[in-house]
Amino acid sequence: MTAGAVRKRAEATALAAAGVTVVLWASAFVSIRSAGAHYSPGALALGRLGAGALVLCAVLLVRREGLPPRAAWPGIITSGVLWFGGYMVALNWGERLVDAGTAAMVVNIGPLLMALLGGWLLKEGFPSRLLAGMAVSFAGAVVVGLSVSGGSGSSPLGVALCVLAAISYAVGVVSQKPALRHASPLQVTAFGCLIGFVACLPFSGQLVAEVADAPASATLNTVYLGVFPTALAFSTWAYALSRTTAGRMGSTTYVVPFLVVLMSWLFLDEVPGRLALAGGLLCLAGVAVSRSRSRTPRPPRPVTAAGSATAAPSATAAPSATAAPDPRPSSPAGQPTSPVPQGRRTAT
């Protein structure tokens, strides 16, 4: 298999892993709406991270991967505290104080911050296609947010919490990228989730009190959030992130609003309006632009000293003026004579 084929196969695998992530993260919004009615923001985050940490640590023991190298711990700790812990609590809390449209628009500055931080701190650069695609996707996210906005007043604290969630999300992902150079995606995800769980332990009293009163459906949704959108989706995210840039991975998450609209239509009987569908299509278009690659220009044809392109030699090409002289003797008419075979004499 050639190097180009190997690279294309790795990119296809990373894109498939990112697809699993965005589908499960989109499903999380549907489950959060159910569980969030019976669990407070901190308790919901703690229960979700606890279920996810149990699954991830069990898989880690089965695979016998052990502890990550020392060089990976700074990124794991930072992403665990900010992304697994801080982001989930801030987002759960913020969505209680602002309408869904405002939350969607504010939180979606996260991928833009991710691309900027990745280009600056990780030296990933600022590709024009990536920035253009993210601008289109962000416009689509704004359209989706406006379409589902309830029109209620937005609390300044709620907006601030959504901004905090977006910043925590971006910084957590950018911190996770260097850790993946030293540890496996499973190690980075498992220990990041475990650190996030520890960071949320102050909410354990609320979780214990609310479990007794919450219906079974809300508790099952919390477990689902921990097993699939956390344990599985964060693992596939880390796998894909280890094989591409933080900016391109961030742009992929703009598919989530479109999927949320479709899932709400299917599972919650919330028929999307034309504005929501148009915004979702803008998100998809922006992701396609951001993940596209410019065509590699063909190498120029070599030129001769005279400046003309060299052509392949042909059978009818005229002999060059600098061609080696014919070693055969010439006849008086200028035609070369046949060589004389050795061991034979010509007739006299």
UniProtKB/TrEMBL annotation:
InterPro entries: Alkyne_AA_exporter (IPR052756), EamA_dom (IPR000620), EmrE-like (IPR037185). It comes from the Bacteria. Residues 18-144, 157-289 form the EamA domain. Residues 292-348 are annotated as: Disordered. Keywords: Membrane, Transmembrane, Transmembrane helix. The keyword Membrane applies. The chain crosses the membrane at residues 12-32, 44-62, 71-90, 102-122, 129-149, 155-174, 186-209, 221-240, 252-268, 274-291. Residues 303-325 have a biased composition (Low complexity). Belongs to the EamA transporter family. This is DMT family transporter. The lineage of its organism: Bacteria, Bacillati, Actinomycetota, Actinomycetes, Kitasatosporales.
